[in-house]
Amino acid sequence: MRTRTFKQTYGELTRLLPYSSSWTWYVALLAALIALPLVGPTYVSTFVLLILSAAVGAIGLNIVTGSAGLISLGHAGFLAIGAYTTAILTTDYGFDLIPTLVIAGLVSAASSLLVGIPSLRLKGLYLAITTLAFSIIVTQLIVEAEWLTGGSIGKAVTRTTVFGYPVRSTISIYYIALGVLVLTIFGALNLLRSRVGRAWMAIRDYDTAARMMGINLVQYKLFAFAVSAFLTGVAGGLSALYVRYINIDGFTLIVSVEAVAMILVGGLGSVRGAILGAIIITILPDVSRWLMNTMFRSVFVLPAANSQEIKGIIYAVMIILFLRYEPDGLAARWAVIKRFWSEWPLGKARG
Amino acid sequence: MLKSGPSSGELGGSAPVAAARAGLEVANAQIFYDSHVEAVRDISFAVPPGQIVCLLGSNGAGKSTTLKAISGILFPEKGMLVSGSITYDGRRIDRVEADEVVRGGVVLVPEGRRLFINLTVEENLLVGGISRSAADRRAQLERVYDQFPELPEHRHRISGYLSGGQQQMVAIGRALMSNPTLLMLDEPSLGLAPKIVDSIFEAIVQLRSNDMSVLLVEQNAHLALSVADFGYVMERGRIVFDGSANDLMESPEIQEFYLGMNASKQRKSLRHVKHYKRRKRWLS
After folding, report:
1. Is the complex ipTM higher than 0.85?
2. A195 and B175: CB-CB below 8 Å?
3. pLDDT digits (tens, 9 = 90+) for B22-32
4. What residues of A are in contact with residue B77 (Cβ under 8 Å)?
C-alpha cells in the first residue's frame, strides 16, 4: 500500500510533488483551466479570473504570515501599489504588460522595506498595527498624488499590450493571470522547500533558536516581506487589468481582512491552502447572497449596495468557525480526506 | 580562587589539541539585563581547543546568561555585555551578530531544546546547517546520523512529537550541522531519564575526540564533572571556584555545596541539605 510516511533518500524529500501520479492530476487541472474560457460561459471565466488573481495575492500573504509568522494587515497597501503602478505604466507610458507586472511587483517589494524594517523588532499585534498603518498611509498618499494617480477619482486602465498585441478581452487577461498563478505556485513551492523556506519556518516557530542556528533574522524577515509584497503587487496589477478602473475604495481594510481570511480558511503556511482559501473567500459572498435572495426572498432581499457589509460578516463568521473547528484550514482537511481514501477500506477518518 | 584556567598541557590527557587555535576566552565580562539588573559580574574563564569545560552553579547564578552572551543572543532579551570581552580563536565575538558567531564555529544548544516543533527532524537538522553550503550540509547530515543512529528512523517525523531524549539528540545534532569547533550545551540533562542522560553524555564525550571543545552548563555537578576536564563554579553572577574536574570533585566545598556529600562521601539527609543551604546563604 502506498504511504506518505517513508522517504528513504534526500531526493524523495526535496521532490516538488511526492508522486508522479500527482503530476497527471495537476496537468489535467491545468488543461481544464485552459479550456474553460473556450467552452464555458463568460461569467464563469470572469469568476475564475477573480480567483486566479486572488490566489496569487493569497500565496504572497501566506509566505509572510503563514511561513515566516509575520502578521500583516497591510497587504491592501501592496495591492494598491501594484495596481496603480500597472495603471500608470500601461496607460500613461505605454509599457508592455509583462515588464509592467514585474515592475509593479518590484515597486511593491521596495515599499515593503517600510514595514519590513519595523518588523525586525515587532511581533504579533504590534506588527499587525504597523502594517495596517502602512496600508492607510499608502491610500492617503495615492489620494494626495492626484497628478499621478487621479486622486480620489481614480484611474482608468485603457491601453494594455503584450509583446505589442493589444489586450482587450477578459479571456486574454484570464490566460495572463493563469500563467502568473502557475509561475507563482512553482516559485512558492520551490522557495518553501529550500533553505530560505526552512529558515522562514524556523523564525516562525522560535526566532531566538533560529538566531542561535545562524539565521540572519534581518535578511530573512526582509526577504519574506519583499517576496510577499512582490506577489501581492503582481496580483494588484492583474486586478487593475480586469477591473479597468481603479480607485482607493478598492483597497480598504476589508481587502486586507479578506486576504487574511483566505489564508486562515485555507491553511497557514501552505500553498494549496492559500489557493483553496482564495476559492472559498472569492465565491462565498456571491453564493451566500444568491442563497439568501433565492431561499429567503420572502423575508429579505439583499441589495448589491450592501455587499461590503455582507462580506465583512461572512469573513468574520468564516474566520471564527475555522479558528474554532479547523485551525489548520482546508489544507489540513484535504490531507485528512486524502489519507482516508488512500488507506480505504483499512483506514478510518481522523479529524 | 580564580587562577589561570585550563591549559592544554595540563588537562585533557588524551584530547588532541590544535596548537594554532586559542579557543574561547571570556575576560572580565559584566552583563546587565534591562540596563540595571546585573546578572554576571566580572567573570573570566577559558575553553581551550579540544577540551570539555563545565560551568556549574545553582539557579540564577548567571550560567545561561554567559552562554547567551557568547552566542550573541542577549540583545533580544534586553541583555547587554557592558564591560569585558569575549574572544574566540583570538577574534572578538561579543560585538557581532549571532549568525556570524555560528559561522565562526561557536554554537549553542539551548536549555529546553527549543526545536522548531512544526518541522521534521531532518528539516530541523537542515536549518542547523543553514550557514553551510548545500554539499557541506548533506555531508554533515550523514555525519550527524552516524553520531546519533536513532535519528534516521525518525527523520520525517514532526520533531514536536518526539520524546524528550530524542528531542535532545535532535537539538545537539542540529547544532552539529553547522560543523562547530565549540559546542555549548545548556542543561542537556534537564527533564530526561537517567538512562537517556547517560547516552547524551556519552555522545558529548565522543564529540571531544573530533577536536571539538565543549562548554557545558549543568546543574547536575556530579555528572558534569565526570565528563569535564576543567570546571568553573558560579554563584550570584561570579566565578567562586575553578579547577580541574578531579580537583573540584575532591574539594570539600564542592562536595558539600554542589555534590550533596558529607565528609565521608555519603549522601546527605534532607535535614543536612537544608542546614547546608542555610549555611551557604550565610557564607555568601
Report:
1. no
2. no
3. 789 999 999 99
4. 208
